[in-house]
Fold each of these.
Amino acid sequence: MRPTVRFLTDDLIKQIIDEAVNILCSIGLKIHNKQILSMLADHQARIDMDNFHVNLTEEIIQKSIKTAPRSFKLYDVMGNQTHDFSDYNVYFTPGSTALNILDSQTQRMRKPLTNDYIDFSKIIAQLENFASTSTAFIATDVHEKISDSYRLFLSLLYCEKPVVTGAFTAESFAVMKDFLLAVRQSEKALKEKPLAIFSCCPTSPLKWCEVTSQNLIDCARDSIPVEIIAVPLSGFMSPVTLTGSLIQHTAENLSGIVISQLINPGTPVLYGGSPAIFDIRYETTPMGAIETMMLDCAFNEIGKYLNLPTQAYISMSDAKMLDAQAGMESGMGATLAVLAGINSISGPGMIDFESCQSLEKLVLDNEMCGMTLRLIDGITPRDDFPALPIFQELLREKHLLIAEHTTRHRHKEIFFPGPAIDRANRERWKQQGAMDLNARLHNEVNKLLKTYQPSTLPETTKKDLVKLMEKDARRHGQDHLPLPPMTP
């Protein structure tokens, strides 16, 4: 039996959805995109073009929910399926768009560079419990106008996993789509085997800005999967109660689903978000707060009630270093996320309020993800009945270490983490150097960088990606990209 956790009853979910629909129809929302407003007017929504305001109708909302796919799949750069976003299937991806990296040498945060991003890609390519990579942080040694496309470029060049990404400018999308086409070779192939998910974020409360709404249009037109990332902040930019925040989150998500489905019915969508409570004492939005995790799990239940695949930013920490707080908050989030069945779990590797990535924490969180994936495998009988022969052998041999039953089921039944997790006895731990967690993680990072094997993407495709990136860089006045010599 797969263990699960729930926070909402079906009756409460229905009530939250009804309230959200009523808000969208009665109060409405702002959409700073006249193309979308004109389209909504064609569907009998009430529009105030001068104030970028729209009141939706229940008919528009219900129709859009029905056309949104109940599931979809993702594929790696070589065209192999990696994800099936259906039912309670769960997949981990690192947190994205960090402004800082935790330097492993100084244990201090600093601005990331290209080499940091390449190291990240080499490591994530080898961490088996991450099904996808993300455009994890913003390299500061390239022009800011190419930061979006550059992150996707490096991900595709150095890692074969599908990418969770996004664009902060409308202009970046065209270049990023060209990268995806360079890998897939045709729009038809890209549609049949999606390679990336784009994050599209409404602005709380109840607003879509020009850039994010345009990204949503662009993705929908090309059937590129999107995740709607609504970010209500309980007690600040949404009601202080978790139920009130869930009503707002539902309304903002539904508005994104409406836009995507009216542009192109059937556009793959993840019902997602990154809500948080607001800690008035410090004026912060803690991702490691238990109430934040409860919001994530609860809105996932609402998405599933609507028969939509789900996403959430969870399993990260607000700590500023790799300490007990980082482990506690990340572990609690990951455990709740898999029990809730959130299909795409974003966040591992991150600390400091979703703003800093750590390569060492990625290695640690890979083990955390593996443990939680084992958790939802549950307890299943494996040739345990009748039990009498097994216990007869145990009493006869005084152990079951090499028993046929043990060797057949050991690796399926027991998750064995890597060297980052200390399970040695004290004497053996001393013999192996008495290393603390940070030392073990640093060793593992260095090992992974040494064992990295280049992506098997064809060299011609890699060269095409480099040419496209160089062209985009020159367009913004950057004639040289800080890439290592090994790059084709």
Note: The chain has 17 helices and 20 strands.
Amino acid sequence: MTAAAAPPISLSNPYVRAMTLGRIAGTLGLSIIVVAVGWQLYEITGSAWALGFVGAVELVPVLLLMIPAGNLADRMARRSLAVFATAVMFVAALGLLAATLLNAPTAVIFAMVALVGVSRAFSSPSVGTILPQLLKPTQFVHANAWVSSGAQFAAASGPAVGGILIAATGNTVAAYAVAAACELVFIAMLLTLPRIDPPPTDAKHSWGEALAGMRFVWNNPLFLAAITLDLFAVLLGGAVALLPIFAKDILEVGPTGLGWLRAAPALGALLMALIQTRIPPWQRPGFVMLLCVVGFGLATIGFGLSTSLYLSLFCLFLTGVFDSVSVVVRISLEQVITPDHLRGRVSAINFVFIGMSNELGAFESGATAALFGAVRSVVGGGIAVLGVVAAVAAKWPQLITLGPLHTLKPIPEPEQHANQPT
């Protein structure tokens, strides 16, 4: 028997409201940091390599902390871990502010970027797994759409706010100060959510237990297909890291224009996420996901070839529209099929595959832009995305026939589920 779809959940739910407002504040702060660091480094160095290394520096702590962060999220109250992660982001924002005021060398800026990576390593398996403890599975899709809407609203406004602050003050000090304040608001919202301690377990610490999330992902082809599709789409098709080059050298629109270019994908994602809060869940979510990644690749190619600000904004807007659908489908699939006692570890693996593919993609984009030019880097990446869609569809054809997500059930982890709560 399949589960019936629940009525759409809204912001009247206190848990969804608190998480949505918190994600707005946290994402706003992170978005301002990203645009300020990008502009500051390119102003100092004038190098595409520097922009690429931002992603690599942020990725290193995630790779090192992925396994312990996921295990902590399954062994302690996730709200507490989320507060810690957000506090680290707050410290990074203050560090960047101090580095700017003191004219510190770029090594200090990169050190703070690494601290951002530490924060995100602990944030993903904790923040992203709180709501599934508080809601019914049939509510996941619409709840994720609301939280995604809030995050995308912040991701849309954050770069614009950051760009305006930089243009108005001539430096990044005010931008970093606002970012730090936003992280404090996120902490306040997290503290309004219930603290849920994990049930006691007699399971012993072991490498097998630590790697349970990786094993779960590897043994579930539908989820593996979804995250592989998003991983390589974002890795190869990410043009965002090169926007300072397009804003300054190709479109010649300055920091304010850079802010709007950074905001355009998030505006598209915000609009699509809001639409998804009102429409029924997709009947063929896997097929829809494949089509959206094709659209993402085509829009990326259009942006790379554009020499018009308005056409560039439109193409970036479309990348956000297509990406929003893919994100909601993938996150909801993860939450529905993953048992709660594994959600922290699975979310950590998912973050490395997806969340940090942006940073690895930034390094790839910076490196190819330095070698072949920014336009060729973006266009070539968009073409590669289309090839990824074809490869994933051929490797995992079951993704095309995947039915409504709310009809799926959690899949027990074969070696541990008998001794764990379900």
Note: The chain is about 75% helix and 0% strand.
Amino acid sequence: MMKFRSWGLEIGTLMGLVLVVFAVVYAAASGGGSAGAFVDYASIVCVVGGSLATLLIAYPLKTVLNLGGVYRAAVVRRPPDSAATIGVLVELAEVARRDGLLALEAHTAEIENPFIVTGVRMTVDGTRPEILEESLRTEIEATARRHTIGKGALDTVGKYAPAFGMIGTLVGLVMMLGNMNDPDAIGPGMAVALLTTLYGALLANGVCLPLADKLSYLNKQELIDMEIVVKGILGIQSGDNPRLIEQRLGMYLPAGEREALRRPRVRPEVEEDVLV
């Protein structure tokens, strides 16, 4: 009954990344060029290696190694379903009002949102409201810091990748100009030199900067969802009416989703009785 819907696969982000690759490949193929002409491993090493080097310079090694989960979230996670969060909190409020706060402990196993579980357990343990709120807001601040670091790292790569693309181009031009005795090698040499600029622009504008914006969006949505949990848990602890809690928390949602909250919910067991 209280199952909290976990974040699922974000198809849009994956589609966007695939579309970036498709657009570039299609542009190259429609121009009559061969696929091999757009692959140069030295250019890839220059751009990717240089960008990674700037990341290691800008952030401690431990921080860089711990960013994998943040980037995975940016690619595969959807924003939290705040309407579902409110639904869970309202049902918990109904249980607390009917059976008392201690009865909430039996429902924690049904809730997949660890932040709600933390708040419920602290409530059951009799934590004072001011300490409960302070603890939950400390977790919110920690989450915001993690997301800020992850976004900052992506912004760093997005900022320096085009620069290393240009550096690779300059290195290629210097090498090409140093071998002007062979005119036939000038064209291919120029093409390879320009590939580093292409790689740098693609890494920055096709991957890192869009994912940084996605992390920023997810951060805002998750912080809103966590704020809803804080308000809801404090309302449950103070014994507020579940309808009042639902109305108060619904203010965090867009107008259309608020209307959905006002519709009467039919519990699964009641629905089964009606069907029978």
Note: The chain has a mean pLDDT of 83.
Amino acid sequence: MPDLTLYMPDPASIRVIECSPPSWMVQLALEEKELDYQVRSLSFAAGEHRSPEMLARNPRGTVPVLTDGPIAVYETLAIVEYLEFAYPAAPLLPNTNPLRALALTRLHESSHLKTAGMGLFSYLMKTRGLDLDPNEVDRLAVAFHDELFYWEYYYGISQFAAGSALSYADISVFTYVAAAAHLGLPLDERYPNLKRFYERMKGRISVVTTWPPWKPTPYAYLAETM
């Protein structure tokens, strides 16, 4: 039996975004693979992710971290690649070379969406409301929108990033799109293909089970970004 523990932030300790998209991605992968695992929630505000115990698992002090018995894995893509190797049942990569190549390409390509998204999200997380500069929000949002247009195109070609089956790439993209929707991004106005993808994903049991404790009404931070 697996002895899996996922160390991830307590959503309540993350201002505004109230979620860690990389950690959520790993949790979704564990759910999709129907693996038994425990969650250890860490308080960002209390610095628990940088405790001596956590630094022994990951000297960089970042999350998520996954332990499998005595094995510790950090860096999000390393974690999901480990899961696919160690627990190949319920695969989240296609079994043909052409589709696997596409799925892996899209997975690593999603790191660009992560970079742009976290640049924007981090500014919103770290800046108090009265100090928010609308011009800076717009500047950071431009890079995020540029990335979203790629994925809007990809999801117009097929239901998922690599054909007709869910892969790690879809899980990665979804977490950032969902976080943006939580912050007020109007998907239906600009990104109809991503909107359909987002709604499909919201219906999956893995997503319903792990949905962050977000309020029903989105914030308005991204409602009018360029």
Note: The chain has two domains: 4-86, 97-210.
